[in-house]
Amino acid sequence: MSDGPGDNGKHRPATRVVEAGRRAEWTGPVVNPPVWRASTHLYDDSQDLAKGRTNEDGHFYYGRRGAPTQWALCDALTTLEPGAAGTVLYPSGVAAIAGALLSVLETGDVLLMTDNVYEPSRAMARNLLAPLGIETRFFDPLDVDGFAGHFCDRTKAVLFESPGSLTMEVADIPALSDIAREKCAISLIDNTWATPLGLPVLERGCDVAIMSLTKHVGGHSDLMMGSVSAGEKLYRKIRLKSQAMGTVVSPDDASLALRGLRTMAVRLERSTATALELARWLSDQPQVAHVLCPMLEGTPGNALWQRDFSGGCGLFSIVLKGSSVSQRAAFIDALELFGIGFSWGGFESLAIPFDPTGARSVTPWPPEGWDSEDRLGVRFSIGLEDSADLMQDVAQALAKMDTA
Ligand SMILES: *Cc1c(COP(=O)(O)O)cnc(C)c1O
User: What is the CATH T-level fold of the domain 5-262, as seen in this structure?
Assistant: First the structure.
């Protein structure tokens, strides 16, 4: 039950995260919707049962169709995504990507997938889509001129992700999604990095916005969830598929996600500022060959980021200068304030090693023009710690790498 762009669409994003999804009929007298646990709806009598309930959010029917806590979260996410008519929740970000793709693709179709995609999306092409007779072809997200050449009459959808996972290339999403539209293909984008606060993707030309809420929306590393938002026609289709699959998220998790959402704008602002400070400092360090951070002035993606995005986040990467795997391990292991772990977008900083060499189909790693020795990456997820403490920690760990 969404009012399209949202009844509070007149406010700016930081205000909308505070007020979105707060409806008196769902929240009662409290400001965040309580955890509303239920499977069964009790009807007044047989006649009431026979009348049935509409299959719309806002009319409790049966727990699998959601209840006020989940509706409030959906409504809030829809309000934050200009152009969306509704949002469907999934038990993880990966489930959201799968749910969206399976809603728009059928046997015999071809999907175009950006070559710097999140690795589990690539695995999905292999392990979920290929056995269903859906073919996936990869494309270089930076080659706008060559993009139209990837389409054939079976190409039904494109999966974008910008900045790309780990390597952070920024794609020209408005130009690429224009081409996809001309080719009658549906463009989906994994917008976990920017969230609609940083990149309102439906306004930039995409048809379907996907997010792992596990990251910035949850924000506290204690929740798994995903979402898909779209305009009316596609939203209906995606919702129907998710109902056919029996997808549900618990009201407890929905409540945590809503709580996280309320502070997302300030958390993003803070972690973006710290990440940028750290990225600037790292770009001057002799052990660092490349800083892969769209917010950093002078990096390849920065011009597009400046043009299309209204915010960043704390996730960025570096590529070490000709280091060995053991030197990189010495650096990461010497970090005291950064946990070593997957996921990101939490309040605590993390660092992981990466090497995209095996996870690419059509673009080389290292990219053309780089020294072939400079290939080992470290990805940072910057949390809410004091930036001077983080900087000091990275400095002492780099020094330990030199002596390893
Ligand atoms: C983590 C992540 C996902 C998957 O989210 P989960 O909630 O962990 O399933 C999807 N896309 C990107 C870019 C991610 O980083």
Answer: Aspartate Aminotransferase; domain 2 (3.40.640)
Secondary structure of residue 145 in the 3-state scheme: helix
Q: Where are the domains of the chain?
A: 5-262, 265-402
The catalytic position among 190, 207, 253, 393 is: 190
Give the Å distance between the CA of 218 and the centre of ligand 1: 12
Q: Where are the beta strands (DSSP E) in 36-148?
A: 86-90, 110-114, 135-139
Is 321 an active-site residue?
A: no
Is the CB of residue 163 below 6 angstroms from any atom belonging to ligand 1? no
Q: What tokens were used for 261?
A: 């959402």
Is residue 352 within 8 Å of 340, Cβ to Cβ?
A: yes
Decide the pairing of beta strands 110-114 and 135-139: parallel
CATH of 265-402, one of 3.90.1150.10, 3.40.50.460, 3.40.50.300, 3.40.50.2000: 3.90.1150.10
Gap between the Cα atoms of 75 and 345, Å rounded: 22
The tens place of each residue's pLDDT in the chain, 404 residues long, gives 334 444 555 789 899 999 999 999 888 889 888 999 999 989 999 999 998 888 888 888 889 989 999 999 999 999 999 999 999 999 999 999 999 999 999 999 999 999 999 999 999 999 999 999 999 999 999 999 999 999 999 999 999 999 999 999 999 999 999 999 999 999 999 999 999 999 999 999 999 999 999 999 999 999 999 999 999 999 999 999 999 999 999 999 999 999 999 999 999 999 999 999 999 999 999 999 999 999 999 999 999 999 999 999 999 999 999 989 999 999 999 999 999 999 999 999 999 999 998 889 999 999 999 999 999 999 999 999 999 999 999 999 999 987 87
Distance 268 CA to ligand 1 centre (A): 17
Q: Which residue has the tokens 């391990």?
A: 329
User: Do the two domains 5-262 and 265-402 of this chain adopt the same fold?
Assistant: no
Residue 190 is a catalytic residue: yes
Task: Assess whether 215 carries a catalytic annotation.
Answer: yes
- Neighbour count for residue 345 (Cβ, 10 Å): 29
For residue 139, how far is its CA from the centre of ligand 1 (angstroms)?
20
